[in-house]
Amino acid sequence: MRVYDLIWKKREGGELTAAEIAFLISGFVNGEIPDYQMSAWCMAVFFRGMTFEECAALTLAMADSGEKIDLTEIPGIKVDKHSTGGVGDKTSLVLLPLVAAAGVPVAKMSGRGLGHTGGTIDKLESIPGFRTELDRDQFLKQVSRIGIALMGQTKTLVPADKKLYALRDLTATVESIPLIAASIVSKKLAAGADAVVLDVKYGDGALMRDYGDALKLARTMVEIGNRTGRRFKAILSNMDQPLGMAIGNSLEVAEAIATLKGEGPSDLTELCMTLGGLMVFLAGICETPEAGKGIIWKILTSGAGLAKFKELIEAQGGNPGVLEDPGMLPTAPVVERIAAPRSGWIERLECRALGLAAMELGAGRTLLDDVIRPEVGLKIHAKVGAYVEKGAILVEIHARSADDAGKVIPRVLNCFRFSEEPVKEPILINESL
Ligand code: URA
C-alpha cells in the first residue's frame, strides 16, 4: 500500500477499505507517515467526506491505537457522557454526582478546555487541592469505593486522536463530521463504558453551528457506537447562548454547587435532568428516560447529589468547604459590573464572542499549554427573552486587573442584542436520538 495512492483515492471521491484506513492510522501513529501526507488526506476527507463504513473503520482503528481502559472489574453497567463543547457548560459537575448517587458507577475521563469552550478538568482544578491526575489503580478503586471518579485523559488513550487532532487544528480540518465523529467515539470506546450519552451542541457557541450538521454528527456517532455493541444515545442542545449564567472556571463550579442545592439556573438544571434521565435509563435502573428524569430530580431535591459531590471532592484531595462557602474558590480581585445601555428584551447573546472574551481574561487557552486563571470570567445577569431596564446590571466581568476588564468591556457589551418587542426564550433541547 502507498500513502500517495490512498490520498489520491480519497481526493477523487473514492471509498477506502478498513485495511487501508488501519494502515494510515497505524503508520501515522508510529511515525512512518509524515504530517504532510496525513494533512493532505485530512483535507481530502474534509472535502470528499467519508462513507459510514469508512467512518466506522476510522473510529475502530483510532480506538485500537493505544491503551484501552477495562472497567469490567466494576460491577454494573457503566455509562459515560460526552459534550461536544460549549460556553458555560458545567453540566458534568452537576450531572455525574447525581447519576452516581442513583447507583450508576461513574468512571469518567474528561478533557481540558481549548479555544472559546471550557473543560471539566480545568473547572475541577479550581477547587483548592483537587487532584485530577489519578493512576489507573486509584481511579478504579475510587469508583468501587464511592461510585465516582473523574480524571484527565491519559496520554496513552487514543494516541491517534492526540496526533491527528493537533494536525487538524493547524490545517483547518477540524470541522469535518466524519473526523469529529471518529475522534469522539474512539475516545469513548477506549474509555471502556458500556453505554454513552452524547450532548451534541448546535448554534453560535458550538463546534457545529448549523443544526443540520449537528444532527448528522449525532446520528453518525450513535450509529457507530451502537454498531460496536455498546449503547449510544444523543440529544441535540442549543448553544446560541451560554448555558447557565457563569463562564469561567471558579464561577462555573460555584454555579454547579448552587445547582446541586436546587438553586441553579433553569436551563442547566433541565439539561442535567434530561442527560441524567438517559444515563440511568441506559444503566437499566428504569424503564424509560422519562422515569429516569424523575429519579434524578428526586436525587437533586434530596441533597444526595450534593453529598456525592462532597465525597468526590474529598476523595480527590479537594477542600469540601467550597460547598458551604463558594467564597473559598479562587476569586478575582476586580469585578466590574456593566449596566444595560438601554431598556428592552434581550434578543440575542453572541455566545462564541462571550466565550472568547472569557478566554481573553484568562479563563481558557489558545494553546494546550497556556496557563488557566481559575478566578476570572463572566457572570451574565440577563439571557435571551429577559426584559432589562436601562441601568440594570447586564453582566459582571471578573478580572485580574481593571486593565484586563477594560479591554473586554466593549466587546462583552456588544454581545447583548436588544429588541423593542418581547422575545421568546429559545428551546434548549431539540431532539433525542
Ligand atoms: N472534540 C473532539 O474530541 N474531537 C474533535 O474532533 C472535535 C471536538
Summary tags:
single chain; 433 residues; alpha/beta; Transferase, Pyrimidine Nucleoside Phosphorylase, Chain A, domain 3; Pyrimidine Nucleoside Phosphorylase, Chain A, domain 2; Aldehyde Oxidoreductase, domain 3; 3 domains; four-stranded mixed beta sheet; four-stranded antiparallel beta sheet; 17 helices; 47% helix; binds uracil
Written account of the structure:
The protein has 17 helices and 13 strands. The chain has 433 residues and is α/β, with parallel strands linked by helices. The strands form 4 sheets. It has a 4-stranded mixed beta sheet with strand order 1-4-5-13, sandwiched between helices. The chain has a 4-stranded antiparallel beta sheet with strand order 6-9-11-7, sandwiched between helices. The protein has a 3-stranded antiparallel beta sheet with strand order 10-8-12. Helix 10 links the parallel strand 4 (195-202) and strand 5. Helix 12 (266-282) crosses helix 13. The model has no long low-confidence stretch (mean pLDDT 94). Bound molecules: uracil. Residues 84, 165, 174, 179-180, 183-184, 207 line the site of uracil. Uracil binds at residues 84, 165, 174, 179-180, 183-184, 207.
